[in-house]
């Protein structure tokens, strides 16, 4: 059969001879003779088994055949075929040379077997590859071979692709067992999809691909990389690639459960479109298929699965055109509007969504379909155009996917979109419908509506509350049914705020009422369940910005809906007072809701005569609240409730609500500091006629801050077209009238009402005489005054504004007639407002007295202000409180116990403004005093150092004040310095002899810092003078460089560096060439900064006061270093010569080693934890001369010196980095960060205020200055004993005396509390809005 199939069809013409049966040459010649003589024999086949036959024997047989043919008569019909068979074991060596055959042709045949059902027909493949038969259909051969592999592939693909999803249906539903799963794949692959996949796979195998893989198989065999035959090799690849192709395509075509569309679908159009789009899926290269041998797991799917074939691919293709359209519009600078245009279809106006964007997108989509470039779009659009069912499927999938809604659950949303969007598009061409659909996804109003409907639909799903008709006039329809009817009448109603808020409130109120009714029927558990469902829906609804705009900003809402909204919010706020679910709170909410529901609504939820306003809600709460309900929860609830009623733009507030709040404030707010015993909140202090809420509860929870906050809301609440009235242009007429009415109705009307108003902090001060006035002493009057005062302070009050306010107030007073009640109320408010303006004026006077920037006298303020302040009618004069008020403001501005004591020690201190004006300069001096200054620099200090410091200041300022170079000024400076040096007098400071030359260096630096740097003044001329004309001062180069940087900061340069990563898990080291090195990080240039430069030259004008104090302290430290002899303190080398620190013992280093020691640098031995304690216990195992607190002090001084050196001397970076501090540290960030941490620890761990910390530092530096005049101390420590001795010297002689001096200062400050003026002013301050509480006031002044 093999011979008949592969060599010759007629076996009778074949002469077959096996060479293994030929035993001799003679016998072979006989065979040749017989073949040549027999006429019917045309082909002689010699079969040679090459494992037994040598190459020489084959050659000899060829020679014999050639000789036989030459010797005898040649017969052209006679052919000889030598069939050489080589076993696989011979493939590793050359089998037979076939290059020089001399007339013989050769063919290579591979394991040709007579298998009629073989997958790979090698003869056909060889014919296709060699193109032997041009008419042979290669694709048909491959297609048949592929289809024959389908049955065997099913089990393999089933094991490779996992299916089963909770959202799946049909093919992707979770199978019960393996056989069911395999049956689904069998049904899928035996159907149209299987045929399509076979066609797609067959396209790989073009003649070139067949020839390529045959050649590769042959090369594998020839190169001994494979021991199987070429046929088996090709067959194996062909099958493996097909299995991988099926698994790959099934997995990728099943994105978003897409195979459910084709599996078992009965609609021919859907199946045809699916197959066409399947054909457009991207496929891998044939050579890549062999690598896809993994197992595929079904992808995560959305909550709903599309039913349109390959929906996501089609949708993304159109969205891609949408993006292109937007880019085109922006490029062409077209007016980007997408407002719907009215078009007419069959005489009916519809919304077409045809703006600029729609028109451009339509053009792009039509071009894509016509050109056929995008076959996915072309196929999808054509099928949608021809089949209505596919259009319906597409738009439903689009809405479900884009807006994340469920077609089965979100029925209301689907119906509304159908009514407002889909139905109006019915008459348009398919492409226009698709364009409109995709543009609709950009409709913000529609997106907001869908977000609003989502929680309401869930509410309707979770609860079965149905409003049963009680009367024939009641509406039996549910809210969603009413909404659909309204939208069906007119699709534009979906954008109507009234329609929307009615639907929202009806839905929420229906669920809420159902819960309350179950509570009323004693169904507690069912009521709680319904309440939680409603609470979740209510919360999810009102967090939507669109809903808040509808419910909170609707100006006119029907009364019944306003009532529903008030009740819903009242109960909602009660549930919000605690974050967790609480059964007792749920019960209270149900009780409150039931009270309000039965009191204010009928059975069909119409409004009764009682409206649920603020008064009714608070009364109902008081009825429902239990005795043990926490006060904090009541406070939180009341604040939320008031915030709702009086929020800006709220539609819930009415005049009755405002009256209710003002009445509550006037009767229950306590503004003084007298402690009240808490009463039982359930006790009934029922006011007259039962119209006022219980006093005890509100009395305990209302605070002045809450009252001021909401009263200001009321006064600024604009009602309809109201305009603000004078004198204060933010307060509206209706609000002011209600405040006045409440005051008049709450107090006894008398003649005093038109005379004066005195604030509560005047009335509570015994030394201030105030006439009693019951109307003016009401809590609401005080609260109104404090609110006005707070408003004026927030807005800022200039002299002109105060003058204008006073004129307007007096103008109103002059034109009012006292016999009209409403005008009396207006004048009453004007009197209170007048006092508020006066108080601002008093603060302005105190500011003028203490300000160093203004030259205006306090008595030169606006005449009307001074007149009003001095008027006894407003509280002026000797018995009034204005002078005390000015003193209180002065004490607040002076700050600190030291300045307070000095102020109290002013001789003949009186309360007179005129007398304070006389002492104005002294007050300014006191105000300028700061505890961070060294003693000889303080205002009023005396002594030789003070005189020299003042003289140096005068000389330096003289040079700086010249507009251009003035030789006389420069000569005066040089002569002045030389005169001080030439006096040859010994300077004495606290019995310590001070070197004049060194002190001059210190004084020049301190003047440079405090009078030039702090006031942002530059003077480069001084640097030149110091360098060339006053050589006697012996400034070294580093000192001159520091002075130059602060006198001419423009010459400063930043040295930016990269900080350590913020993420603590990020690696900062790497292993390179056997060494651990700092890792090079790629950071943006904006992240690289010079923190020390930014600290001394901040860009932000509003600095942290702690940074300012730290800079002052460091400046004093540098000044002391300037005054020290060279080498007399460790500060000298830390500041001026860091190279001497290398390989020495450093003070404050926690290890008993030199620095550096191996890989241990200074930063390794000074680290502290976050609390300011030692980082590791072994830090202090060795002997040390420092305590933890003195450790703070000495390392603060060391790192302060390092920071200044890094700022001013560029060479310091190279001397410190990698020599004193580890090279992996960002040097500048570390030094400044450590300095700030130590500064913080000195305050927190020593329990010092900022003032006390500055005092401790100044005291320490002052002691160091005096001790440093002796040059017997060392600055370099080569032995451990030397550094221990130096540390003990710092602890015993610097830190301990400074700490003792601080204790003495605190004892002196204790007498402040006993001063009667302090106590009086402290009492006045407790209710003044800008003054802190009594505890904070005491802490700030007394520490």
Describe the secondary-structure layout.
Blueprint: H1 2-6, E1 14-18, H2 25-37, E2 43-49, H3 55-71, E3 79-85, H4 122-130, H5 138-148, H6 150-160, E4 161-162, H7 178-189, H8 192-202, H9 207-222, H10 230-253, H11 259-262, H12 268-279, E5 296-297, H13 311-332, E6 342-345, E7 348-351, H14 356-371, H15 375-386, H16 388-402, H17 411-422, H18 430-440, H19 444-462, H20 479-489, H21 497-520, H22 524-542, H23 545-553, H24 559-575, H25 583-600, H26 614-624, H27 631-645, H28 655-668, H29 695-701, H30 704-715, H31 733-746, H32 760-763, H33 779-795, H34 799-815, H35 821-850, H36 863-870, H37 882-894, H38 897-904, H39 913-918, H40 920-928, H41 944-961, H42 967-982, E8 987-989, E9 992-994, H43 996-1013, H44 1020-1028, H45 1037-1047, E10 1069-1072, E11 1075-1078, H46 1091-1096, H47 1105-1123, H48 1130-1136, H49 1188-1208, H50 1212-1216, H51 1227-1244, H52 1250-1267, H53 1280-1309, H54 1316-1325, H55 1334-1342
Parallel strand pairs: 1-2, 2-3, 4-5
Antiparallel strand pairs: 6-7, 8-9, 10-11
How would you portray this structure in words?
This protein has 1343 residues and is mainly alpha-helical. 56% of the residues lie in helices and 3% in strands. The strands form five sheets. The protein has a three-stranded parallel sheet, with no helix packed on it. It is flat, with a radius of gyration of 49 Å. The relative contact order is 0.03. Mean pLDDT is 75; it is low at 336-354, 465-474, 673-691, 720-727, 907-912, 923-929 and 1331-1343.
């Amino acid at each position: 059969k093999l011979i008949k199939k592969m060599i010759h069809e007629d076996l009778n013409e074949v002469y077959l001879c096996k060479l293994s049966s030929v035993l001799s040459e003679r016998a072979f010649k006989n065979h040749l003779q017989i073949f040549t003589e027999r006429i019917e024999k045309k082909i002689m086949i010699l079969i040679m088994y090459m494992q037994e036959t040598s190459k020489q024997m084959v050659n000899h047989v060829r020679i014999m055949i050639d000789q036989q043919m030459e010797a005898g008569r040649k017969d052209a019909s006679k052919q000889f075929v030598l069939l050489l068979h080589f076993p696989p074991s011979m493939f590793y060596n050359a089998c037979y040379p076939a290059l020089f055959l001399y007339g013989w042709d050769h063919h290579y045949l591979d394991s040709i077997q007579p298998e009629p059902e073989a997958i790979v027909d090698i003869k056909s493949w060889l014919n296709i590859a060699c193109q032997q038969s041009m008419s042979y259909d290669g694709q048909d051969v491959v297609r048949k071979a592929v289809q024959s592999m389908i049955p065997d592939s099913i089990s393999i693909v089933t094991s490779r692709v996992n299916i089963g999803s909770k959202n799946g249906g049909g093919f992707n539903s979770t199978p019960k067992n393996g056989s069911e799963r395999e049956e689904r794949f069998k049904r899928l692959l035996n159907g149209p999809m299987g045929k399509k996949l076979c066609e797609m796979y067959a396209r790989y195998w073009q003649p070139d691909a067949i020839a390529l893989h045959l050649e590769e198989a042959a090369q594998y065999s020839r190169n001994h990389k494979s021991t199987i035959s070429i046929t088996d090799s090709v067959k194996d690849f062909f099958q493996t690639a097909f299995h991988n192709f099926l698994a790959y395509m099934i997995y990728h075509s099943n994105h978003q459960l897409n195979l459910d569309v084709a599996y078992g679908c009965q609609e021919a159009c859907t199946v045809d479109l699916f197959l066409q789009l399947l054909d457009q899926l991207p496929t891998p290269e044939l050579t890549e298929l062999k690598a896809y041998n993994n197992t595929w797991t079904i992808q995560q799917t959305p909550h709903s699965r599309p039913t349109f074939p390959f929906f996501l691919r089609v949708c993304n293709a159109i969205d891609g055109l949408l993006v292109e359209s937007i880019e085109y519009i922006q490029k062409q600078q077209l007016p980007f509007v997408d407002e719907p245009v009215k078009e007419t279809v069959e005489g009916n106006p519809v919304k077409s969504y045809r703006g600029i964007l729609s028109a451009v997108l339509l053009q792009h989509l039509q071009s894509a379909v016509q050109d056929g470039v995008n076959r996915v779009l072309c196929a999808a659009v054509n099928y949608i155009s021809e089949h209505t069912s596919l259009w319906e499927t597409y738009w439903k999938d689009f809405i479900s996917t884009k807006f994340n809604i469920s077609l089965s659950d979100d029925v209301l949303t689907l119906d509304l979109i159908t009514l407002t969007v889909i139905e109006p598009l019915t008459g348009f061409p398919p492409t226009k419908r698709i364009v409109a659909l995709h543009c609709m996804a950009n409709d913000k109003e529609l997106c907001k509506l869908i977000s609003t409907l989502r929680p309401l639909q869930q509410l309707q799903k979770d609860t079965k509350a149905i409003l049963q008709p009680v009367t024939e006039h009641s509406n039996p329809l549910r809210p969603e049914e009413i909404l659909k009817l309204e939208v069906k009448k007119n699709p534009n109603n979906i954008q109507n705020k009234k329609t929307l808020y009615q639907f929202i409130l009806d839905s929420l109120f229906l669920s809420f009422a159902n819960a309350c009714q179950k509570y009323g029927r004693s169904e507690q558990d069912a009521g709680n369940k319904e309440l939680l469902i409603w609470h979740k829906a209510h919360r999810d609804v009102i967090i939507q910005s669109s809903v808040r705009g509808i419910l909170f900003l609707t100006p006119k809402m029907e009364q019944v809906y306003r009532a529903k909204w008030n009740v819903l919010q009242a109960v909602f706020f009660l549930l919000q007072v605690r974050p967790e679910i609480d059964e007792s709170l749920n019960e209270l909410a149900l009780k409150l809701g039931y009270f309000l529901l039965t009191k204010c609504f009928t059975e069909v939820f119409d409004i009764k005569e009682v409206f649920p306003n603020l008064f009714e809600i608070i009364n109902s709460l008081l009825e429902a609240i239990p005795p043990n309900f926490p006060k904090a929860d009541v406070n939180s609830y009341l604040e939320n409730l008031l915030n709702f009623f009086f929020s800006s733009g709220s539609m819930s507030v009415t005049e009755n609500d405002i009256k209710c709040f003002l009445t509550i404030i006037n009767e229950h707010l306590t503004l003084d500091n007298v402690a009240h015993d808490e009463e039982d909140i359930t006790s009934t202090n029922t006011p007259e006629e039962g119209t006022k809420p219980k006093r005890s509860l509100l009395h305990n929870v209302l605070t002045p801050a809450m009252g001021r906050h909401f009263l200001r809301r009321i006064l600024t609440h604009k009602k309809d077209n109201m305009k603000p009235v004078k004198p204060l242009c933010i307060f509206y007429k209706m609000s002011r009238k209600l405040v006045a009415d409440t005051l008049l109705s709450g107090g006894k009307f008398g003649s005093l009402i038109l005379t004066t108003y005195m604030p509560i902090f005047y009335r509570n001060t015994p030394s201030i005489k105030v006439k009693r006035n019951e109307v003016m002493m009401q809590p609401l009057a005080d609260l109104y005054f404090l609110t006005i005062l707070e408003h004026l302070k927030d807005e800022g009050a200039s002299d002109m504004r105060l003058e204008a306010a006073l004129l307007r107030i007096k103008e109103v007073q002059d034109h009012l007639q006292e016999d009209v009640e409403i005008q009396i109320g207006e004048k009453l408010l004007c009197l209170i407002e007048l006092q508020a303006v006066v108080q601002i004026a008093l603060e302005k006077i105190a500011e003028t007295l203490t300000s160093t920037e203004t030259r205006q006298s306090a008595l030169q303020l606006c005449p009307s202000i001074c007149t009003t302040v001095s008027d006894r009618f407003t509280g002026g004069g000797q018995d009034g409180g204005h002078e005390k008020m000015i003193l209180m403001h002065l004490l607040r501005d002076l700050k600190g116990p030291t300045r307070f004591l000095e102020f109290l020690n002013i001789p003949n201190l009186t309360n007179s403004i005129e007398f304070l004006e006389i002492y104005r300069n002294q007050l300014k001096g006191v105000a300028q005093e700061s505890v961070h200054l060294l003693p000889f620099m303080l205002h009023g200090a005396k002594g030789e150092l003070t005189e020299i410091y003042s003289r140096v200041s005068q000389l330096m300022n003289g040079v700086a004040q010249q507009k251009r170079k003035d030789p006389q000024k420069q000569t005066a400076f040089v002569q002045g310095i030389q005169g001080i040096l030439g006096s040859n007098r010994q300077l004495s400071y606290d019995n310590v002899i001070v070197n004049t030359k060194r002190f001059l260096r210190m004084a020049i630096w301190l003047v440079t810092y405090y009078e030039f740097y702090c006031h942002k003044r530059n003077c480069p001329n001084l640097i030149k003078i110091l360098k060339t004309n006053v050589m006697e001062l012996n400034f070294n180069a580093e000192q001159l460089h520091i002075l130059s940087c602060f006198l001419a900061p423009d010459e400063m340069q930043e040295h930016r560096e990269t900080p350590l990563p913020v993420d603590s898990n990020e690696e900062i080291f790497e292993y390179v060439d056997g060494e651990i090195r700092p890792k090079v990080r790629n950071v943006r240039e904006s992240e690289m900064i010079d923190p020390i430069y930014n600290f001394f030259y901040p860009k932000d004008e509003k600095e942290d006061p702690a940074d300012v104090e730290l800079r002052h302290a460091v400046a004093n430290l540098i000044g002391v270093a300037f005054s020290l002899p060279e080498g007399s303190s460790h500060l000298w080398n830390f500041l001026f010569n860091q190279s001497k620190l290398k390989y020495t013992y450093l003070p404050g280093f926690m290890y008993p080693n030199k620095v550096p020691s191996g890989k241990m640098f200074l930063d390794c031995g000074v680290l502290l934890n976050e609390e300011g304690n030692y980082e590791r216990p072994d830090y202090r195992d060795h002997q040390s001369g420092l305590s933890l607190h003195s450790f703070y002090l000495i390392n603060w001084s060391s790192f302060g010196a390092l920071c200044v050196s890094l700022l001013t001397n560029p060479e310091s970076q190279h001397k410190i980095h990698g020599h004193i501090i580890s090279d992996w540290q960002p040097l500048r960030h570390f030094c400044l960060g450590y300095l700030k941490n130590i500064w913080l620890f000195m305050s927190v761990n020593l329990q010092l205020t900022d003032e006390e910390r500055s005092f401790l530092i100044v005291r320490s530096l002052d002691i160091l200055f005096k001790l440093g005049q002796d040059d017997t101390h060392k600055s370099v420590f080569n032995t451990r004993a030397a550094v221990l001795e130096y540390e003990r010297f710092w602890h015993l002689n610097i830190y301990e005396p400074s700490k003792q001096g601080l204790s003495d200062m605190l004892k002196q400050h204790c007498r402040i509390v006993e001063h009667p003026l302090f106590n009086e002013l402290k009492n006045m301050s407790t209710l003044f809005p800008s003054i802190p509480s009594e505890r904070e006031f005491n802490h700030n002044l007394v520490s």
